[in-house]
Amino acid sequence: MSTLKNDLLLRTLKGEKVERPPVWMMRQAGRYLPEYMVLREKYGFFERCQTPELACEITLQPVDIIGVDAAILFSDILVVPQAMGLEVQLIESKGPILPNPIKSIEDLARVKVPDVNETLPYVFDAIKLIKQELNGRVPLIGFAGAPWTLLCYMVQGKGSKTFDEAKIFCYTQPETAHRLLQMITDTTIAYLQKQIEAGADVVQIFDSWGGLLGPADFEEFSLKYIRQIVRAVKDMAPVIVFAKGAWHSLEAMSATGATALGIDWCITAQMARQLAGPDIVLQGNFDPAKLLSPIPVIKKEVKQMLTAFGGQKHIANLGHGILPNVPVDHARAFVDTVKEFEKERTVIEA
Predict the structure, then answer these.
(1) CB of 306 within 8 A of CB of 268?
(2) Does residue 43 carry a catalytic annotation?
């Protein structure tokens, strides 16, 4: 195992004092990079996920092209419902379709808690290959979707802004919902543990739709299960929990034992710190749409973000995934501004 040449992310996650915040971007491996689009023309989405050589190449692209401080595995949260027995189709620029969604207790017979070694081996093979190719340049982040977010797709059968059907399912068939959530949780624990064994240095749990639930329901249908996952993997590797829009529960998320919490742009650094407490690392929270601003504006706004977080216990990131229409030089300006932050501060302090 090669030692890491750039361990800024891991040192930050350990709570050590660092020269500058580490920087990476959610969804950095993919759709805004011309090099990725070349592969997208040739191979289908799940073909790219399930071919370790392709997943490796795509994972490494932003490290080479943009110079981020961490690689994140190229995959998709919906490989888990797929492994559990549901058909998942990914239609380019339309999003995911699950043709036979879960609607009742009878439908649970079609879902299983799989042996992840049999259903998801391509992910672990990709991680091993990526670690080999990275050769210690930067750490690798593995990930999974939070059980609530996966339930949303498994019940709704497609993407949605509100996931009303998923919520109604939880409110009208709570026992069935909890059984499904527990099955997803058990699968996810095994999946993340194997990712770490294969070489992931850090794992992130994405609760993309956590913000659709009020605080009590977030506890009931999401956090209860995230807590189990964090407990099961936190001694193996640092865990980042990102529940978009669920800032009302930052204090409760902080108490899960997670190492870091991702936040979106709808909350200030100061308020997030107040809610999450002084010890946890915060990750975020640049609005991805702002990467379409002129480069001087991006630089100015990134500096403001870094200053607001105070330079420590902070991972510079976006508040959600990078948009497909962001020019590569704008993404690079985001990363470079974070990297230059240390030099600028040194000059000011001197």
Answers:
(1) no
(2) no
Catalytically annotated residue among 7, 20, 27, 186: 27
Nearest to 332 by CA among 139, 68, 58: 68
Which structure tokens are listed for 297? 């504006």
Tens-level pLDDT at each residue, the chain (350 residues): 458 999 999 999 999 999 999 999 999 999 999 999 999 999 999 999 999 999 999 999 999 999 999 999 999 999 999 999 999 999 877 889 999 999 999 999 999 999 999 999 999 999 999 999 999 999 999 999 999 999 999 999 999 999 999 999 999 999 999 999 999 999 999 999 999 999 999 999 999 999 999 999 999 999 999 999 999 999 999 999 999 999 999 999 999 999 999 999 999 999 999 999 999 999 999 999 999 999 999 999 999 999 999 999 999 999 999 999 999 999 999 999 999 997 676 666 65
Rg (alpha carbons) of the chain, rounded to whole number: 19
Sequence-ordered alpha helix ranges (H) in the chain? 8-13, 34-42, 45-50, 52-65, 79-83, 116-119, 121-134, 147-156, 164-172, 174-198, 215-218, 224-233, 250-254, 269-276, 295-309, 328-349
Which pTM does this prediction carry? 0.97
| Cβ within 8 Å of residue 143, ≥6 positions away | 72, 73, 75, 77, 203, 204, 205, 206
Question: Which DSSP state fits 97?
Answer: E
Smallest CA-to-CA distance from 113 within 166, 178, 49, 189 is with: 189
Q: Note if 31 is an active site residue.
A: yes
Catalytic site includes residue 279:
no
Per the residue annotation, which of 32, 153, 191, 225 is the catalytic one? Answer: 153
State whether residue 90 is helix, strand or coil: strand
Indicate if 48 belongs to the active site. no
Catalytic residue among 76, 107, 217, 287: 76
Both tokens of 310, joined, read: 């105070």
Token look-up 């990275």 returns 134
**For strand 202-207 and strand 140-145, is the pairing parallel, antiparallel, or unpaired?**
parallel
